Amino acid sequence: MQDIFPNEQEKTTLLTQLNLLGAKKVRVEFQGGGDSGQVEYVGYQDKNDEWNTIPDEITSWTKQTYGSQEPQQERISLDEVLEDLCYRALDKTGLDWYNNDGGQGALVIDFTKSPTLIKLDVGVNYTTTEDHEFVIDGDDDDDDDGEIGRAHV
Asked: For residue range 114-137, what is the model confidence (pLDDT) as tens digits?
């Protein structure tokens, strides 16, 4: 996958800020279905293995406004930065995680790995239908077992 960071300086700044929080891991969880999807949770695991919400610290970030061609430099909170990063990564996958049966997953930043591991886990849901037809009463010349037709998956 292509790099999801606006530039190398912002990547370094974000990772440094998260590291200064004492984050071992960062999770940005998302879920979608129907025709919409959103980030549901943004948090970090500290050195005591406890999960915490991201503090309201403000940072400078080049945010891509969807539908706009030009990225905008903004001052936004760290959790908004992480949400934006997650949406960028999801956009680059081309997966349809928010329509129909939807999907779910998480962007994970793992500081316990060297170099720091940044990965996106995505599950896309699909419903399958298996149709069966049985003759209850009447003449069945097609089958010996009473089932008519074939399964459709």
From this structure: 999 999 999 999 988 899 899 998
* C-alpha 141, offset from chain centre: 51
**Do the beta carbons of residue 142 and residue 51 sit within 8 Å?**
no
| Residue 15: both structure tokens together | 């990772």
Q: Is 100 left (phi over 0), alpha (psi -120 to 50) or beta?
A: left
pTM for the complete prediction? Answer: 0.77
In single-letter form, the type of residue at position 15 comes to L
**Total residues belonging to the chain:** 153
What are the angstrom distances between the C-alpha of 76 and each of 49, 56, 59, 61, 151? 27, 9, 6, 7, 53
pLDDT, position 138: 80
Among 125, 128, 117, which Cα is nearest to 151's? 128
